[in-house]
Amino acid sequence: MALPEIISGRVWKLGDHVNTDLLHPPSHFTPDEKRMKEGIAEGRTRLGAGVKGDSSEEGWIIVAGENFGCGSSRETSVRGLASFGVKGVVAVYFARIFMRSLVNLGIPVFEAKEIQGCVKDGEMIRISLKEVWIEGPDSKRFPFSPLDPHLRRILEAGGLIGYLRSEKHGI
Questions:
Q1: I need a labelling partner for 151 at 20 to 30 A (CA). Which of 11, 127, 144, 158 fits?
Q2: Do 92 and 65 form a contact (C-beta atoms < 8 A)?
């Protein structure tokens, strides 16, 4: 599974210090995908999402501020985001363990400072991994920090399990 050169989706805008227990309430920690998805929907309501509903076809790109993913570091929250259609996460910076969980499950992460104040919930944005920019709805481009080469290889394999399998089998 290759990492696409361009990732596009609808903005799900969040603020600073978004706690994973608000994003995905502990009452929805389960291996059941439907229940995880319901938890993310509840988290969207708690966090005041400006656009309601699901965007699984187009996909969501979370645009957040500082310290995204603080709080508990349960992988269930990331699995919930993936089942809800999150294709990538842009933040000023991430809580370290949560960022690694995103990468380990194949959700690309991007650190960018300027874009958060320039987009709104529901707007379409594009991310170019090759050219290292995020394009807002008005075609304005914002740079992001290049992906660490090791994290990029994990993402290109679809996550940590795929990466470990490819390493084991020399693929």
A1: 11
A2: yes
Task: Report the C-alpha gap between 140 and 145 in whole angstroms.
Answer: 17
Distance CA 115, CA 75 (A): 27
Burial class for 116, CB neighbours closer than 10 Å (0-12, 13-18, 19+): buried
First to last CA, the chain: 12
Q: What is the CATH number of the domain that holds 69?
A: 3.20.19.10
Q: Give per-residue pLDDT as tens, 22-66.
A: 888 888 888 888 888 888 888 888 887 766 655 557 899 999 999
Structure tokens at 118: 């320039």
Which residue type, as a one-letter code, is found at position 1?
A: M
The structure tokens listed for 58 are: 């187009």
Question: pTM here?
Answer: 0.91
Domain that holds residue 86: 6-169
Q: How many domains does the chain have?
A: 1
State the Cα–Cα distance between residues 49 and 137, nearest whole angstrom.
18
Q: Which of 19, 17, 153 is nearest to 93 (CA)?
A: 17
Residue 2 neighbours by CB distance under 10 Å: 8
